[in-house]
């Protein structure tokens, strides 16, 4: 998946992102609770989107000067219009895989629900380690393999195409971190399950948060109505009293370079 495609895809979701990103925002707040006290320096919110936790990051880490880094300029512009960025929390449009930052210049890298779009974990973690100070830390939340299992199962009843973005597993992240010279200060996986009234509502939430884009799909364009109806019928078989389930598997970790 190219950086330009990711940026364009999430840019289209900017205006409605905050309203629909309930799981993403809850995960970001949970990750905030794991942050220890920080020394003075630079903090970077990697994948900041519209900056919904900018104020909380400043309150929790007041000694840091913050960069809100995102690949999508429309996301950052939306955050600016909402008054979330200023001289103390500066927006920066850039790719987390090639950070325009000096080596050892960052005290805290904070990232929630963003780095799952970077499948080459060793290269990603090497770049993050490059910019981090020797006594700095990386606080990370990412969805991992097993997320959106209900949606995957429904599509599997229809065809063998890829309809849900494949995600690295918890073990993949652990192996990449160990190989890259990272030591875990915190490490746990949590499950979050949402319920929706319809398959259409599931799709709306995915589109509104930019999460429905899938690289490498064998079939492009609109689905034939018969295949979509078959997927809906398969998903409906999973309905529970609360509605149609959609599960996220979330990995929370705080890493330090060793």
TrEMBL record:
GO terms for biological process: methylation. Keywords: Methyltransferase, Transferase. GO terms for molecular function: methyltransferase activity. It comes from the Bacteria. Residues 44-139 form the Methyltransferase type domain. The keyword Repeat does not apply. PANTHER family: ARGININE-HYDROXYLASE NDUFAF5, MITOCHONDRIAL. This is Methyltransferase domain-containing protein.
């Amino acid at each position: 998946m190219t950086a330009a495609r990711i940026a364009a895809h999430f840019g289209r979701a900017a205006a409605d992102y905050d309203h629909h990103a309930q799981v993403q925002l809850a995960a970001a707040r949970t990750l905030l609770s794991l942050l220890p006290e920080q020394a003075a320096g630079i903090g970077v919110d990697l994948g900041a989107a519209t900056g919904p936790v900018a104020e909380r990051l400043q309150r929790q880490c007041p000694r840091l000067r913050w960069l809100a880094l995102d690949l999508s300029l429309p996301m950052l512009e939306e955050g600016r219009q909402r008054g979330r960025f200023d001289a103390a929390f500066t927006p920066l449009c850039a790719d987390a895989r090639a950070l325009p930052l000096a080596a050892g210049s960052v005290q805290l890298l904070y990232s929630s629900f963003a780095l799952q779009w970077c499948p080459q974990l060793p290269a990603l973690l090497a770049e993050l380690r490059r910019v981090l100070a020797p006594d700095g830390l990386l606080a990370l939340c990412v969805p991992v393999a097993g997320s959106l299992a209900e949606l995957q199962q429904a599509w599997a009843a229809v065809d063998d195409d890829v309809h849900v973005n494949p995600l690295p597993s918890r073990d993949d992240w652990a192996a990449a971190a160990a190989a890259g010279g990272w030591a875990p200060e915190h490490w746990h996986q949590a499950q979050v399950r949402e319920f929706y009234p319809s398959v259409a509502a599931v799709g709306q939430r995915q589109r509104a948060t930019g999460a429905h884009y899938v690289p490498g799909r064998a079939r492009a364009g609109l689905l034939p109505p018969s295949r979509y109806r078959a997927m809906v019928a398969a998903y409906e078989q999973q309905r529970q009293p609360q509605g149609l389930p959609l599960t996220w598997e979330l990995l929370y970790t705080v890493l330090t370079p060793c």
